[in-house]
Amino acid sequence: MAKEVVSGEIDWNEADLPSPKSGGGKNDYMRLKEGENVVRIMGNPVQTYIHWVTLPDGTQRKIVSPSNSPALVKKLEEAGFRRQPNWIIKVLDRSDNEFKLLEIGNQIYKGIQTLFNNPKWGKVTGYDISINRGPKGQQPLYSVTPNPKESLESTFKQKFIDFNDRINLDKLISPMPADEVAKMLGLSTSSSRDEDDDVPAKKTASSSKSFNFDFE
Fold first, then answer.
1. What whole-number percentage of the chain has pLDDT above 90?
2. What pLDDT shows up at residue 20?
3. pTM summary value
C-alpha cells in the first residue's frame, strides 16, 4: 500500500515534504508581492494535495487532488500532472493588519519549519516573520527571516475569532469530485473504489480558537 496521505491541520514537523529532487472569498487570501511581506502566523499549517493541470484549451488550473479516487489520481500522474503537497496558514498581514489565508509551498514551509525547530525562536506565533520574494526566475524565490519577539495587541483577539469563525478550511481542502476532474480533462473514471489503493485519511481542519496565542 502506498504512503498514507494526510489532509488537514498538522504540526510543523509532520508535513509530507517533497524530496529535493522533486522541486516544488477572494479577499481572504494574501498574495505575496516582490520584496518583503511581513506576517504573524496564527496557528498550525493545514496540508492538502494539489495538481496543476492543463485544460484542453491550453490553460492551466490548480485543483485539489481527487484523492478519493486513487485510479484517477494515477491517471493524472501518468499524464504528467504531479500531485504535490500544499499548505494553507492563517496569518495577520502586517501591510494592512487584516487576517488572511496564505497558501505556501515547499520553500516557505521549510523556512518557517527551521524557525519552529530553532530553540532561539521556537513557537512561530510569538513573533512576526518576513517572507521575502525575489524577482521572477530567482532561485530560491523565497526566504524567511524572523522579527523580534513581541505579543500581539489584545485588540486583535476578537477580530481573529470573527475571522476564524467565518473561514471554512474543510471546504477549501476537500478533494475535487472525481467526475468533475474527469469531465474537465476528458478522462474516464470508475465509480467504484479500490479499498486496497491509497485512500487518504482525512483529518478535519481543527479550529485555532484554543491555540495558545501570545496576546498582550
1. 59
2. 42
3. 0.76
Out of 3.90.198.10, 2.40.110.10, 3.40.50.10800, 1.10.10.10, select the CATH number for domain 6-16+26-173.
Answer: 3.90.198.10
CB 4 within 8 A of CB 201: yes
Task: For residues 106-129, give the mean pLDDT.
Answer: 95
Q: Residue 145: what residue type?
A: T
Indicate if the alpha-carbon torsion angle 10, 7, 104, 24 is positive or negative: positive
Distance of CA 167 to the CA centre of its chain: 14
Alpha-carbon distance 202 to 171, whole Å? 12
Cβ–Cβ < 8 Å for 44, 94:
no
